[in-house]
Amino acid sequence: MRKLKLSMGILAIVFATLTVVSCKDAKKENNNEDGHHSEMSSEENHMEMNNESEEHHHHEDGDDDHDKGSATESRDIAASTQKNGATSKIIDGYLQIKNALVSDDATAAAKGGTALLTAFSNFDKSKLGEAQQKEYMEIAESAKEQAEHIVENPIDHQREHFETLSTDISDLVALLGTDKTLYLDYCPMKKTSWLSESKEIENPFFGSKMLTCGSVKKQIN
């Protein structure tokens, strides 16, 4: 029995070490040779952000109540480089959810989900062109579905739906633009991205368990 406990303890230490190394290695891969994160022009940022969004965007089929969404094809969105304040309230709601998940606060995340739903309800899509309206409606439908799940579920499921929501909001920024300075961050453990208003890495997918795991992929604006 003592040998078994010792073996299990060694395995746990090895797993924890590999997890930390994986995160650190992923950070190194995204840094320049001088140790700084790379920065791109505004137009390049939007184009790459859109490509990143398309690469990771997916909805899974399933009958479970906590399913992240119905299956859809990857969106083909021409990246916008305009500074657009009309998307600010939507982004604010998203960031409220993100910051709550960083703090491991399910109640605050639910409030952020409610704020996001309100922001989408108040968004004036009549000023969009026909093609933009079509893309916007697809993004909004998915994002609102994720927000509803975030309002109703515990934090583990909130984080699952936040993954898809992050792709939706990234697509929205690529489509319509923003007047905010944002950072597209990448989590090597989840192999997915999220948006942040701060250059400092605070991982919403793991919160306090792995707060600084990740790297800045690009700056937007």
Radius of gyration: 18 Å
User: Tally the helices: what do you get?
Assistant: 6
Runs in which pLDDT lies below 50 for 5 or more consecutive residues are 1-21, 26-73
Q: What is the number of strand segments?
A: 3
| Nearest-integer average pLDDT | 78
Oligomer: single chain
Helix content: 40-55%
How does the overall form come out from the CA principal axes?
globular
Number of domains: 2
Report how far apart the termini are: 59 Å
Query: SSE string, helix = H, strand = E?
Result: HHHHHHEEE
SS class: mainly alpha
| Spatial order of strands in the largest sheet | 2-1-3
Percent of residues in beta strands: 5-15%
Largest sheet: 3 strands, antiparallel
